[in-house]
Specification:
Number of domains: 3
Number of helices: 19
Helix content: 40-55%
Structural class: alpha/beta
Largest sheet: 7 strands, mixed
Radius of gyration: 28 Å
Distance between the termini: 41 Å
CATH topology of the largest domain: Aspartate Aminotransferase, domain 2
Bound molecules: pyridoxal-5'-phosphate
CATH class of the largest domain: Alpha Beta
CATH superfamily of the largest domain: Type I PLP-dependent aspartate aminotransferase-like (Major domain)
Length: 475
């Protein structure tokens, strides 16, 4: 490598770390930043320029490596290191349970409960009635049983863990009968067959992809059968020439053969959505009534609570799950427990649940309300830049998401935005990089924001973002 004269002069201009430290510690702005953070940022910035000078110095001008310019860059870098990386975003996708965007938002009541338990000591494993050690699960078990009608309940980290734990408890080195039509992959590479294999259970597949009959299950039963498993198809449907065995027939077969029947409901809803004009999705209560011995479902899908896996069912079976040493590794923390308990408590009154739980509120939001939100946002955006923004109000559909209600496509109202002189990809990127980020989608030449999932507090941020976009364009 040849060191040109320009490189040499740039390198000479680049201050040493000692010089940087001496300079920065005199700056007021740095007094709020931990010393090791800005020193580290200083090292990184110098290293960046040393490398850049040696490799492509033609892009660098002398002023950039002067201490005044470096100081600002170091400040920016330090600020960046100090700012949280997990941040709120505006969900304008219309996908209510969006796994990449954190699935369910919690109710205010649940977040209050979390704060209370987080800031103070709690009776997490202390039985206040006798003054002795108690069970971590007792606070939530009672309310889960009351709401679902189950005999006993247990909670773990997520539904994947719930399925794993059940299989490990009942079917290690034994056979689990499952229909070929239910060997699903949920996303995030959660594949039912893989989970079963990992848990040490032996997969006994029956039927075909599109048709499985009760006789297929019956013929597969042997002395090594531990469990009959039914899995909710969650994110897909088989249509056409199909048949699957309903839970009640599996329950009858299980009783006759003395084999427990387990159902992985996936999302699991406590509310019959058909009452509110959406498609019917079997409820957790239905499965309990039908007589499944073990049922598992997620805490943060349609339930609208925190990430958790809920296991309910027959008390003898739940007790043996509680005794499995694995539960210790999959155990739920106190913050989640608080949120889960208060989420379930809201279901004591279904209307209250729909009012307070954001996931339910978004899913069941009347179209008129969404349309009003769209009109209002449209008006404000037009005030910001009616000549540069071309806004269309579009009637599109939202999705439930999260492997929940796969056929759920409810009518919604969206804004489709075009900005003069800015490509739709640039708009999407600008919105994604905004603070807080605004996540929409591109359809055709438009940036689409579905108002179903846009919260009231989000509107202001959306306006700010478009204001900044237009200002940046004008300057
Ligand atoms: C989503 C889902 C899971 C996984 O649940 P998590 O709570 O995300 O771990 C398992 N089974 C089915 C059928 C699902 O839909």
């Amino acid at each position: 490598m040849t060191i040109t004269i320009k490189k040499q002069s740039l390198l000479q201009k680049l201050p040493s770390i000692d010089r940087i430290i001496e300079y920065c510690q005199k700056q007021d702005a740095f007094s709020q930043i931990p010393r090791n953070v800005w020193i580290d940022s200083g090292r990184k910035v110098i290293e960046h320029y040393r490398h850049a000078i040696l490799n492509d110095s033609h892009n660098i001008i002398e002023d950039q490596v002067g201490i005044d310019s470096l100081y600002l860059q170091i400040y920016e870098k330090a600020k960046q290191i100090l700012s949280p990386k997990l941040i709120r975003v505006v969900n304008a996708t219309g996908i209510v349970v969006h796994t990449n965007l954190g699935r369910s938002c919690l109710s205010h009541i649940s977040t209050q409960h979390i704060l209370d338990v987080a800031l103070h000591y709690s009776n997490l494993e202390f039985d206040l009635s006798v003054g002795k050690r108690g069970s971590r699960y007792s606070s939530v078990e009672a309310i889960i049983c009351q709401i679902t009608g189950a005999e006993a309940a247990m909670v773990v980290n997520n539904n994947a863990a719930a399925v794993m734990l059940c299989l490990d408890t009942f079917a290690r080195d034994k056979e689990v009968i499952i229909s070929r039509g239910e060997l699903v992959e949920i996303g995030g590479s959660f594949r039912i067959p893989d989970v079963m294999t990992k848990s040490g259970a032996i997969l006994k597949e029956v039927g075909t992809t599109n048709r499985t009959r009760v006789i297929d299950y019956e013929k597969a039963i042997s002395s090594t059968t531990a469990l009959i498993l039914k899995v909710h198809k969650s994110n897909y449907r088989i249509i056409g020439f199909t048949s699957e065995v309903p839970l009640n027939e599996l329950v009858m077969l299980g009783k006759k053969s003395n084999i427990p029947v387990m159902e992985d409901l996936g999302s699991g809803t406590l509310i019959d959505f058909s009452k509110y004009g959406l498609i019917y999705e079997p409820t957790v209560q239905d499965s309990v009534k039908t007589g499944a011995d073990i049922i598992t479902f997620s805490g943060d899908k349609l339930l609208g609570g925190p990430q958790a896996g809920i296991i309910i069912g027959n008390k003898t079976l739940i007790d043996s799950i509680k005794r499995n040493p694995f539960t210790r590794a999959l155990r739920i923390d106190k913050l989640t427990l608080a949120a889960l308990e208060s989420t379930f408590r809201l279901y004591l009154d279904e209307y209250q649940a729909i009012r307070e739980i954001p996931t339910l509120r978004s899913l069941l939001q009347p179209i008129e309300i969404i349309a009003t939100k769209a009109d209002q946002l449209n008006q404000v955006l037009n005030q910001i830049g009616s000549s540069e923004l071309q806004i269309d109000i579009l009637k599109l559909s939202s999705q439930a998401g999260g492997g929940a209600l796969p056929e759920f496509e409810v009518p919604s109202v969206c804004l489709g935005i075009r900005v003069q002189g800015i490509s739709v990809n640039q708009i999407e990127k600008f919105m994604r990089k905004h603070s807080p980020p605004i996540i929409g989608r591109i359809e055709g030449e438009r940036f689409i924001m579905d108002l179903r999932t846009v919260q009231e507090e989000d509107v202001e941020y959306i306006c700010q973002a478009f204001k900044q976009l237009l200002e940046g364009k004008r300057s």
